[in-house]
Amino acid sequence: MLNTKYFQRLKTILASSLLSLTPLTLHAFELPGANIADNDRYDTLPPMIAEALAQLSTPASTTPAYITEFEQYIAQTVAPSVPGAALLVVADGKVQVMNGYGVRKVGTHDPVTPDTVFRLASVSKTIASAAAGLLVQENKLLWDSTVASTLSNVSFKNAQYGKLITVRDILAHTTGLPAHAYTNLIEARVPYEEAVKRLGTLDFICPPHRCYGYQNVVFSLIGDIIYAKSGESYENFVVNNLFRPLGMNSASFGLEALEQNRNYAQPHVWRRGQWKNVEINTNYYTVAPAAGANASIRDMASWMLAHLGQRPDVLPATTLDDMQAKIIKTSVAHSHYGAQKNMIDTYYGLGWRVFDFGAHKNFVHHGGWVQGYRAEMVFNRDLQIGMVFLTNSETRLARDVILNFVNLYEKHRQSEMTPQLLRADAKTH
Description:
By secondary structure, this protein is an alpha+beta fold. The protein has helices spanning 4-17, 23-28, 47-57, 65-78, 124-137, 159-162, 167-172, 183-187, 192-197, 221-230, 234-246, 254-260, 288-291, 297-310, 317-323, 397-416, 419-428, and strands spanning 84-91, 94-102, 117-119, 252-253, 268-271, 274-277, 293-296, 328-330, 343-348, 353-357, 360-370, 373-380, 385-391.
């Protein structure tokens, strides 16, 4: 007789392992919610494993209406307006949608697939936060470890304030330095090391921990700290301790790694009424923790599920709680959401933006923008929902994608609740 508990455990293990299968296997076996070709069979597998895989590969009997509506919005409104895009949608803790749209380069027929690699831009900051979290898990680092105690080569104009800056301040943008301190140097292709040296000439706008000022150069000090504490370069540490364990097989850092993958999306900008392919601008690759990562939408499925709490072997709940906490209050304008009557509060956590929307708390989000690319990721761990949108263009629709997803979820939730339940739900918030 089949041991039920063992079978359930097997299914859980298989579910968490599917994303780390080899690329060839991934083409043959899609995640739940995707289609499987008729000739993809499990007849040669042991019966228990075959049954588990068959159950995992069976799409949900009903897809939530808001997901269908959202996918139609992407396919009919957004995708036709950009060269290419990729979409991931998770609901009930499962991948429901993983699609590519359009082409990798205008003027070609090379399609965007779930394995097409895009630049993540500032969504890379979420990776840096998780990398620091791994060292915190191992007691090799504290969120409140100071920069001064770790990086002897970094100095600040106000030495007293400089001694107070912590890992938490770097990841939450609360160092007290002016927003985008020396981002202009990165855009001018000044080496990162030179930009760090010039931090010693900056006046603080507030004491550390007190105010919010978004950073790229200062944020990237976390990579130097990780190197100092682990003995590995930041990039190698992430690959060995996050990308590989999570099965993010296409994820990487830098231009060389991007171009080694033949299936990558090329950048486009809007010029003279049409999308034009441009050369890859490498400036932000010099600040890898802030904006240097590349990944496919399949990689981002692994990243999403880990942040929804489904890979505690890599990112346990305590680390997720720390990263997704509301550290510093921000304005809606600073968070790039525009005017939203339902937006209650916006914050920045550790490498993540956090906001409350409508009746729900703790949506976690980050966006990214470098020349020719946009990336957006949003999720809610309590609700077990999430979405990632990647495109090889600088479309302003990327911001709308986030709020459209959240609005449709809220609309769906309210449509399913009775007036009595809605009133009771409102009282609890």
